[in-house]
Design brief:
The chain is of the alpha+beta class. The protein contains ten helices and five strands.
Length: 191
């Protein structure tokens, strides 16, 4: 499997590029925002997802490892293939995650290749798979200065609460609450 490529953009095509890594040129599919920034002769480093089928080997490239991980997560949804997943990654990733967490079917169904049923399936299958840090950050409770106590989150998950529920309540948590016990108590009182 190919996991990383660095090279020069040999040719920019309609949906992908040919990345020259020396004496080999790889066709790499890119999300539209990245593809628009590409120009021939420019150096590019990409994290790669390799899709292997009987009759095809396709490469999908991402600048950030977080994009690659989200792409792989989206691919796990029944009925979502690499092309649709790439369309999803063509949207702002934070807005897409927020749409999933807030059950925004309208936002998701506006993405090319996604209808209402697929949008519903994405929400159902991914809502609880999004990392709790994403959930907290998207709901405004994490910033560079403030760190949420992971032990409290894990304790609440152990009690059977969903990640989204936890993020929804803790986004309103006062900044002075910092200990595990206080965070759990605040959640239980405000749930």
């Amino acid at each position: 499997m190919i996991g990383y490529l660095q090279g020069t953009i040999q040719k920019k095509l309609q949906k992908n590029i040919i990345l020259n890594t020396g004496n080999v040129g790889y066709v790499v599919n890119l999300a539209n925002p990245l593809l628009e920034k590409c120009s021939e002769g420019k150096t590019l480093e990409l994290y790669i997802f390799t899709k292997v089928r009987e009759d095809d080997i396709s490469l999908y490239g991402f600048v950030k490892i977080e994009e690659l991980e989200f792409f792989k997560t989206v691919l796990n949804v029944n009925g979502v293939g690499p092309k649709t997943a790439l369309e999803i990654l063509s949207q702002d990733m934070d807005k897409t995650k927020a749409a999933i967490l807030s059950n925004d079917i309208l936002f998701l169904s506006k993405i090319p290749g996604i209808g209402k049923k697929t949008a519903e399936r994405i929400i159902v299958e991914l809502k609880n798979k999004l990392d709790w840090v994403d959930s907290m950050r998207l709901h405004g409770t994490l910033d560079d200065e403030q760190k949420t106590n992971e032990e409290a989150i894990e304790a609440l998950l152990t009690l059977g609460y969903q990640r989204f529920e936890i993020g929804k309540i803790l986004k309103k948590m006062p900044a002075e609450i910092t200990t595990t016990e206080d965070i759990v108590t605040y959640f239980l009182k405000n749930n």
